[in-house]
Design brief:
Chains A, B, C, D: It is an enzyme of class 3 (hydrolase). 4 copies of one chain form a homotetramer. Chain A is an alpha/beta fold and 216 residues long. Chain A is built from 6 helices and 11 strands. Chain A binds chain D through residues 13, 69-74, 78, 81-82, 84, 86-91, 98, 100-101, 109-113, 119, 136-141, 143, 168, 207, 209-216, and chain D through 13, 69-74, 78, 81-82, 84, 86-91, 98, 100-101, 109-113, 119, 136-141, 143, 168, 207, 209-216.
């Protein structure tokens, strides 16, 4: 049986909840075809978040890893294309650290591309009625940090067959209700969407070629 | 028993559904305290939409009327403050008409304020976890047209005790999935929100004074 | 010789300058055809701003009045369509007042339409390379307050032949430099644009019928 | 004497002009301290644009290279942080090609960071009253393509002392006048801003540590 690891984050930025944890924990233990989903929470802390996901790789030996994080202000599921080797924190993390222009892995490359089928996931989400878009940047906070750390760990271990990536999700409606003007998606939509992302990843060997870029 | 009339529109602008009709029809026949909700559909057609709502006033003699319409691109329930006496259509309506700078009621005033407790509704929606905002413009298409026609009809009939207004709602997620970047709210959230709007209206005689304006 | 009164505001909301005053004062004393422009500053204060513009009507007996104000966050010259009879202040004015849901003129109508040729102005601005759009709301702060007060004063005096309206303008670049993400227009562009608006108003008796509405 | 190469693009996407070429050509031949600026135009064509900038490196042996491109819809000068090794074209380039998920350099790394002092440039632009922001993505069209090709060429030639990067700039006002709602900056502002970017680069050995990241 294949194992799919989904990670979500603890709340940060003064929010009482983090939709990424609320969504992935609802999928914990669920079967998708021949695979089982395991959901775990990561701290919103530079360093500790990567240590945490590395320990989960050792413990669970997953075949697929999708890290999920909150993107307050985005409207859709953002399927991230690339993780970059820098921390540049606009706010402090949950341990009070605010690194600026710090390299994540000293000997690591400038970036890693996700190895999920990001175009097929986007296509299947839209077909399922879930708003989705390929994103060209995961930012420079703890989400990008974990995404980079995950891909670096997989590369270092020679686990090329383990596929990994990151999906940003909007606020929940109850969060947006306290941020006038902010978009949101219902928890049910997020859960259904992440389940589609898992199923598509498991079913797709080679990604489709569909346009998902930006002019700038 | 008091009667609350909720109207929704048929689909327009090439959409297969209109969230306003999907949401209000789910509330048709429901009780809210001592009141009953009646939901009806209006055509997305200049002229016919007002004729339709006037006929519903005659038929149902409602105590409260909330017209609801789709606002593709908005993120929240928009509780409209004011209806203005002009049609200026960016696209054709469902009958092919596209009036530009045409007065809705020749002898009517420039505008009518909603007589719903728009601030209390916004406050109660947010408290219920439903994203909401007071809006200063309902546009110049069929939504504003019906809103103006409703308020003008109530004023003409001397029905000052009948309260009326308009609420714009975002796309459903399945619509937003075909409009990359567009925000949306789940149907359940919309239904729950409109039910709150009805309950607050029935329970509120004098609106609260809470800030809901815009600098520009 | 005809007289065109342009008003701008003093700075507010902690800004060191107000682009509306910077732009209109550059046009003070300029000739446009057979007309002369007179530029004056208004306080960003509820009540006093209307008293100020009423005094200017008495003093200058202008043929055209265009009040101009800052709209931080907008991208274009916004040619306002309608002024509404309510103050609802998101922040305090320069005298510390923050009225909420207060009627501007107790016996006044709900709204007044601008009597400028708003469509012709928008068309001519675009043709001159100046970004412009018709706007359906001037907000509920001091800008809308002055716009309503101006139109009410003209109506009260029976000065139907005096045309009046309001144009919102974006930040200057040096203001936007302190508001990351905010759009702006250069002072030269604003000045050129307001001059076009004056010339078009003087040259236009009946406005053109060109689409300038919004769906919502 | 040091040489600074500024490149701009020919028009694309049906625009009559490209602000990047209009701005850089105004700086051609100008002195900044002990350096001289040379401005050249690149085609908006995948492949040919990189061939073009490589030829300019050979011909001019510049000490600093700043490629500049149009970002219609952005509000500010965007100082790009990173170039990624993929083409994913939302529209066809000027030769009709529309590559999707094609690697730019087969043996190249996933990304290159700009070697310009992006934080010092952003700080100095703002101090000069020019709206500016660090950007985490240059998109996946010809701008990112040239940016990646430039950094790859510099790395391949062992020209570590030559600094390179990319700056995206908004529409000109006359372009925005044909795209209702689009932000813009005046040509004078763009020229002044690029001159600041050149001067800061020449004067700065080690970049400053100032926050310029994004949460997502």
């Amino acid at each position: 049986m294949r194992t799919v690891l989904l990670t979500g984050f603890e709340p940060f930025d003064k929010e009482p909840v983090n939709p990424s944890w609320e969504a992935v924990r609802a999928l914990d233990g669920q079967r998708v075809g021949d695979a089982i989903i395991v959901a775990r929470q990561l701290p919103c802390v530079f360093g500790a978040a990567i240590t945490g996901i590395e320990a989960l790789l050792d413990e669970l030996k997953p075949d697929v890893v999708i890290a999920v994080g909150q993107a307050g202000g985005r409207t859709e599921l953002s399927i991230e294309r690339i993780a970059i080797n820098v921390d540049d924190a606009r706010i402090a993390d949950n341990a009070g650290a605010q690194p600026i222009d710090v390299t994540i892995a000293a000997a690591g490359p400038a970036a890693y591309f996700a190895t999920l089928p990001i175009k097929a996931i986007t296509r299947d989400l839209r077909a399922a009625g879930v708003p989705a878009m390929v994103s060209q940047t995961a930012g420079t906070f703890v989400c990008n940090h974990v995404f980079y750390g995950l891909m670096h760990a997989l590369a270092q271990r020679g686990n090329a067959q383990v596929r990994g990536g990151f999906i940003h999700i909007p606020y929940l409606p109850e969060q947006a209700a306290r941020h006038p003007g902010a978009p949101s998606l219902a928890l049910d939509t997020l859960i259904a969407g992440l389940r589609v992302a898992v199923a598509t990843t498991l079913a797709t060997t080679d990604d489709v070629r569909e346009q998902g870029g930006q002019l700038h």
